[in-house]
Amino acid sequence: MSKESRSLIKEANKFFKQNKFEEAEQLYKRAGDQLGSELVSTSIWLCQKRKSQQSIAASNPLKSNLVSSDAYTAENFLKQKKQLEQTQQLLEEYYQQSQSLKLQLMQRN
């Protein structure tokens, strides 16, 4: 591996860590031209995947919030747990009501 190829890969890795996937992809492609594309094809694929994820997050803020670490705080966990418990309680009440109505219908017939 030439010094230039190593430098390209190091620079590409740096861009990738900075979430600059377009720049990283271009450098990986240049390194692939020198070393063989099979050596960098996975890195290029990963750059493309991450660029795609960035564009989805930019076009859909709700999805990006689900991925952010803020969604996984202890406070949010407790809120979600409480909401889940309330939903479960309502579900059980509705089930009881439906069973009661079903019984009333059967008794009428």
Profile the largest sheet. none
Instruction: Give helix % range.
Output: over 70%
The DSSP helix count reads 5
| End-to-end CA span | 85 Å
Helix and strand run: HHHHH
Got a strand count?
0
Name the average pLDDT. Answer: 85
Give the overall silhouette.
rod-shaped
Strand content: under 5%
Describe it:
There is one protein chain. This protein is mostly helical and 109 residues long. The longest helix has 35 residues. The chain is rod-shaped.
Using brief descriptors, characterize the structure shown.
109 residues; mainly alpha; 5 helices; rod-shaped
Task: Provide a concise account of the structure shown.
With 109 residues, the protein is mainly α. It is 83% helix and 0% strand.
List the helices and strands and how they pair.
Elements: H1 3-17, H2 21-35, H3 41-59, H4 61-67, H5 74-108
Helix pairs in contact: 1-2, 2-3, 3-4
